[in-house]
Amino acid sequence: MPSPDDALTAVYRDLLLDHFRRPRNSGALEHPDVAVHQRNPLCGDEIELQLAFDGDVLRDVRFRGQGCTISQASASMMTQRLQGKSVAEIEEVARRFTAMLHGDREAAVDPALGDLRSLAGVARLPVRLRCALLAWSALAQGLSERPVDQKPE
Ligand code: ZN
User: Fold this and answer.
1) How close is the Cα of 99 to the center of ligand 1, in Å?
2) pLDDT tens-digit profile of 16-75?
3) Which residue of 37, 50, 107, 147 pairs with 29 in a disulfide if CB–CB is 3.0 to 4.6 A?
4) CATH of the domain spanning 4-150, picked from 3.30.420.40, 3.30.980.10, 3.90.1010.10, 3.40.830.10
5) DSSP structure class, residue 30
């Protein structure tokens, strides 16, 4: 008999593979405010992330990429989780997600993380951290390069 833990792991593995095979928000935006390209040379993963803002809110997000299941599934789940959120909300989700990857067990059951919880197992695979965090690193760069509202002349 598989233990409940094994069953949960199987569900999470299916979720990861589903995001890898059918990435959400895949593609490019017509008028992105920011476009970021990052690579993880350790694994050959690449992410190109495009963000469009409406004031403080991430109105639209798309990504293109290639690489391992963890890197691409993480990007897909990230875009799904963050579209329509404010910058403050995005930074909070990013903080909890990073804590989860570093072994925070409370974060691993945090409903705010949604499908992203399926990456909790990466906490036991330190060499894959860079894979799971690649899209989030691109996101942090994108947020820092985000154009701030121009004052009217
Ligand atoms: Zn990878």
Assistant:
1) 19
2) 999 999 999 999 999 999 999 999 999 999 999 999 999 999 999 999 999 999 999 999
3) 50
4) 3.90.1010.10
5) S
